[in-house]
Write a structure and sequence with these properties.
single chain, alpha/beta, eight-stranded parallel β-sheet, 14 helices, about 15% strand, binds 5'-deoxyadenosine
Amino acid sequence: MDIKSIIDKIYETSEATIDEITAILASKETDYLFSVADHTRKEYCKDKIHLRGIIEFSNYCRCECLYCGIRCHNRSLQRYRMELDEIVETAKAAYEIGYKTIILQSGEDLWYTREKISSLIRRIKALGDVAITLSLGERDYEDYKQWKQDGADRYLLKHETADEDLYNRLHPHSSFKKRLQCLRWLKKLGYQPGSGFMIGLPGQNLTTIAKDILLLKELDVDMAGIGPFLPHPATPLGENHAGSGLLTLKALAVARILLKRTHLPATTALEVQNRNNRENAFHAGANVIMRKVQASKYRQLYDIYPKKSIVEKDLKQEKAEIESYIQKIGRQIADDRGDAIPLI
Ligand code: 5AD
């Protein structure tokens, strides 16, 4: 079968094999792929882009992920923790200027006990009709259960790579099995679950990426972040090459055509790597964008991968900028919370 027929088949059946996806990823022909992905996005998500406000409230992390700049062994990084009051104030300011989803993200930092996170969720939910996405890594089943009862709506936990051996090498403190178990718990507990993976990890190949996309389907996630690996100098993978932006866009497009209704962000890593790729992502299936909303003194310290210095802007100015950008590319900011999209 030629590439166009494979793409049509995946679009029509919402099924794909590893070989079919690998063939698409290997092909140099991208116009048709991106146009079918864009068409699918329009069918399921219309022209609406969901804006999510992310609060990266602590860069303490107990993990040793070989690619990540906030890994516990990076002693050169200044660490910070935001107080609960400060986190709620930040969420309030973001909510008041129109963010309808607040993502609470941190390193795996057990200083924030089950009770502290519960209190955060309750206080933020009391602000009004706002969705909360948690992104706190691997925790106990009982933690996840309590936080769902407190009102958390969604949970982001990327599977990072679907190659079990590679996963285990990159994450010496945990295991692929544990990761999948957490994702299955989250689904069972009624969260809108989110996953995702990186493109260009050393040891990964196109077959791995095909498995990554199929794992998103198997897990039946409501959102998925796909971004390039960016080498961080203070990590064991600091000398490796960055993942390809084009390959990331192709994986995003295949994910849209296969999964149809899943929220797919133009990831920050893609944007940091190459500004133009943000726009390309919005024409290759993406329908979500996230903005950091914590005080700028913390932003540079949330140093998972290298990024250029941040120009200080206030929250309002930043939101106005993203709104005008979205209009410029012919899309609109959604005025709803952007919960899971049902299959048509
Ligand atoms: N390059 C790209 N993405 C990274 N992440 C962590 N480190 C890197 C890196 N060096 C991503 C992972 C993680 C999320 C918080 O950031 O996918 O889940």
